[in-house]
Specification:
The complex is a heterodimer.
Chain A (H helix, E strand, L loop, with lengths): L1 H8 L6 H30 L4 H23 L3 H21 L3 H17 L3 H21 L14 H60 L8 H17 L8 H11 L4 H6 L5 H10 L9 H12 L15 H4 L3 H15 L5 E2 L5 E3 L3 H8 L10 H9 L1 H7 L1
Antiparallel strand pairs in A: 1-2
Chain B lengths: L5 H43 L4 H23 L7 H23 L2 H4 L1 H10 L4 H21 L12 H57 L5 H19 L6 H10 L4 H7 L5 H8 L8 H10 L27 H16 L10 H8 L10 H9 L1 H6 L3 H4 L5
The chains are: A mainly alpha, B mainly alpha.
């Protein structure tokens, strides 16, 4: 239970599947309390046939059991569906009884359970069916629902129905809104991630050129480096009480050996043991002589101590029409940008070296591309195109 | 736990706050539209229940007031940046309408209007509003069920039905509270990931500029840029036939590298702090944002996402991949640790304490196995004495 609460507390770090599993567990706890508390009590206040008194707990236990088994088998999605079926079953059972009002409330509870899973398709499907059933049920049993306004017999059920539909629709809007915001954030994330990857390849390229220019020998070939890695690994294994069965020194030698090999070929070879392939596959993201996760983490570490950009105003805003409040500043920004891009090295050349400066024509093509709208507005681009020759000749 | 610089963390938090504000404004519009739609059925119900016209008018007035306040906060964002106030007003306003409806109509059917109000307010997905929403619903729901049994007549007070309804209400609020809690935490996590990545983007650019300077020995000549821009704007003004409105701003931009806002305002009193802050974005010597921005512009080709890929769910670069064998994690970490401790052409060597502090920072949260991190923390002496020096002269990565 404590572990479950801990997971809820740190739910943002869980993957979608892990988060779903946690949600099913929580629903099962609610379901357990709810079922154990309400089913026996309902037997006292409802006049039910013996068959129903046997069937209802049996169905409840079966559905609960299936949900639990699915969860154990790591089939969280199926478990989610069964937990919803259990709640839907309970709702139908209660609204069929005589306690109509709290039966009606159960429609909201079951909708809440469906909302809890935050899956738009499931919500539209199950939530839609349940709401439709709720509307039909209120229509069919309006005389049973408690309402103190006998003079207006048609209004009470209409209010029940309207609020149930309203509740369903408001949460549907919430789903759509959340989805749209997450999608926008995701797009922003992907674009930034792609530019970051581009920056990393620039950095890697520069570092490699520096190594070549200054005559550094590759670190992975340095015996002292191998010894240091062995020493540190040994300390971590011993002090961290890791239970390692393989000979760690041999695996370290294999790690350095991989720097001279084509890992894809190793992975494709049939004669190589699976264990070796596993090590090769897992090590490839940590090799020193290629741009991979290890480099990204090293860059991240170096960046950590950098101050970043100094302005506090609109730190992560790029669009000219957001960061500048007037046309004069935007023209100045456009002029500096033009000068920068036609003067400074910003591209890889055809040999993969960081050496290329954009020409006027290339810059014009860039300014006319869809991607540049992330920074420049139509108005900025039109200004540039209209005064293209001034930019070209006078900057 | 996190040892990131206070100033940096504050700026990241500010940016997350701005991102949240942007989305909250969008949600405010949705809530206002829903409230607008709700006016008609509300007035109709009140009319059917023979509520006096003056009372109906008051309901109409409260709805209109909430929508107007929301609109004012939305459209005058510079004047009224605190959208939270508008959300609180909406929350209280909507619940006041709901309570009045329940007391005026006194019917079991209208009781569930509380659930509808709850759903509308939960659209905001903001932590303080969510707490307020849960508390109001729980307390008001229980009060109505237990103290106003007339609403649920002919069911008497404290029958199993009343208990059932309170029980159902508690489950309802508990489930939706957890939903809100998870959603809000996840949303903030997404905001943080986006902002962290943008921060990294700037720092990577900074690193590229530094390495470029180290590699080529050349640095960006700000003065030369300004003189080119001056000539260009002189010519442009002349050709377009307008007064040169650029030169004064260029003077300020040049002065920004060495002068404070106050000093500049003494020389150019017509420029307010906001104007000067804006011009900082064009300064090339100290602030350099326009240079970073231009570099980014040059990289924009083909970065538009082509597939519907949900990247948030994919773990970023890490030394703590779930599927990796423990020995792989240990060796990868040992390599990473040694490279951090070694001197590099583009960065200084880190001390053991600096590495530990880095690994405990938000930037590296969860990226290293806790057991490995603990070995580092509890064996400080060993790691401090480790002879990294022997390889520092050859390390270049």
């Amino acid at each position: 239970m404590r572990e479950l609460m801990e997971k809820v507390k740190n739910s943002e770090f869980l993957t979608l599947n892990e988060a779903l599993k946690v949600k099913v567990y929580l629903i099962m706890i609610f379901l357990l309390f709810f079922g154990l508390l309400t089913i026996p009590i309902s037997f006292f206040i409802e006049d039910l046939a013996l068959s129903l008194r046997i069937v209802v707990p049996l169905v409840y236990v079966s559905l609960f059991g299936i949900t639990f088994i699915m969860l154990m088998l790591n089939r969280s999605r199926i478990a989610m569906h069964f937990s919803m079926y259990t709640f839907i079953g309970l709702t139908i059972y209660y609204v069929s009884g005589t306690g109509q009002l709290y039966g009606y409330f159960l429609f909201f509870i079951t909708l809440t359970v469906i909302i809890f899973y935050q899956d738009i398709t499931t919500y539209i499907l199950y939530g839609g069916i349940l709401t439709a059933y709720g509307v039909y049920y209120i229509q069919a049993s309006e005389s049973l629902l408690v309402d103190p306004h006998p003079s207006l017999p048609q209004v009470g059920p209409a209010i029940y129905q309207a609020i149930l539909i309203g509740f369903f629709l408001v949460y549907l809007i919430q789903f759509i809104l959340t989805d749209s915001i997450n999608e926008n954030l995701n797009q922003d994330y992907i674009r930034t991630k792609k530019t970051n990857n581009r920056y990393k390849s620039y950095l890697y390229r520069y570092i490699t050129d520096l190594e070549n220019r200054d005559g550094f020998s590759p670190i992975q070939d340095n015996p002292q480096f191998h010894i240091t890695i062995k020493e540190i690994s040994k300390t971590i294994i011993e002090e961290g009480n890791f239970n390692i069965e393989d000979d760690f020194e041999e695996v370290i030698e294999f790690y350095f050996f991989l720097h001279r090999q084509d890992i894809q070929k190793i992975l494709k070879r049939d004669k190589i043991a699976e264990e070796v392939k596993t090590y090769a596959y897992q090590f490839q993201k940590y090799l020193i002589n290629s741009l991979n996760e290890l480099d990204s983490l090293l860059f991240r570490a170096v960046c950590h101590h950098k101050e970043g950009i100094k302005d506090k105003l609109n730190r992560y805003e790029y669009r000219f029409d957001t960061i500048f409040s007037n046309k004069t500043n935007r023209i100045l920004g456009l002029a500096i940008m033009y000068k920068f891009l036609t003067t400074e090295i910003t591209q890889l050349d055809k040999w993969g070296r960081v050496q290329k400066v954009l020409s006027h024509q290339e810059l014009k093509a860039l300014f006319q591309s869809k991607e540049i709208r992330e920074i420049l507005s139509f108005e900025d681009i039109n200004f540039f195109l209209k005064n293209e020759n001034f930019f070209k000749d006078d900057l | 736990m996190f040892s990131q610089g206070k100033q940096q963390t504050k700026e990241l938090e500010n940016q997350i706050y701005r991102l949240e504000l942007k989305h909250l404004r969008k949600k405010t519009i949705f809530v206002s539209v829903i409230l607008f739609v709700l006016i008609f059925p509300t007035v109709l119900i009140l009319f059917l229940f023979d509520i006096p016209l003056l009372d109906i008018f008051v309901y109409f007035l409260v709805f209109t007031l909430i929508i107007t306040i929301n609109s004012i906060f939305y459209f005058y964002r510079n004047l009224l940046p605190n959208i939270y106030l508008s959300m609180y007003i909406t929350t209280f306003g909507l619940y006041v309408i709901s309570f009045a409806l329940i007391l005026d109509i006194q019917s079991a059917s209208i009781f569930t209007v509380l659930f509808l109000s709850y759903a509308i307010i939960s659209l905001y997905q903001e932590v303080r509003v969510a707490i307020l929403n849960n508390i109001i619903l729980l307390i008001s729901g229980i009060v109505f069920i237990l103290l106003f049994p007339i609403l649920f007549e002919p069911v008497d007070t404290l029958t199993p039905s009343s208990f059932f309804m309170v029980f159902i209400l508690v489950i309802f609020v508990a489930l939706l509270s957890i939903t809100s809690f998870i959603l809000i935490k996840r949303k903030r996590h997404y905001y943080r990931q986006v902002v962290d990545l943008k921060e990294q983007e700037y720092k990577h650019t900074q690193m590229i500029f530094d390495i470029q300077k180290y590699y080529t020995g050349e640095t960006l000549d700000a003065e030369l840029y300004y003189s080119h821009i001056e000539k260009f704007t002189d010519y442009l003004s002349e050709q377009i036939g307008i007064e040169n409105v650029f030169s004064e701003r260029l003077q300020i931009i040049k002065a920004l590298a060495e002068s404070s806002n106050e000093e500049i305002q003494k020389s150019f009193p017509e420029y307010k702090t906001g104007d000067i802050e804006e011009l900082k974005q064009l300064e090339l010597k100290v602030y350099k944002k326009i240079a970073y921005l231009s570099f980014k512009a040059a990289q924009l080709k083909d970065i538009q996402p082509k597939t519907r890929e949900f990247l948030f769910e994919k773990n970023i670069e890490s030394l703590n991949h779930r599927d990796d064998l423990p020995l792989v994690k240990i060796i990868a970490f040992s390599v990473f640790y040694t490279l951090l401790r070694a001197k590099k052409p583009y960065a200084k060597a880190m001390s053991h304490a600096e590495v530990v502090s880095l690994l405990q920072s938000r930037d590296f949260y969860n990226l290293v196995d806790d057991r490995i991190l603990n070995v580092l923390i509890y064996n400080q002496e060993y790691f401090e004495k480790l002879d990294i020096h022997a390889i520092t002269e050859v390390v270049s990565k």
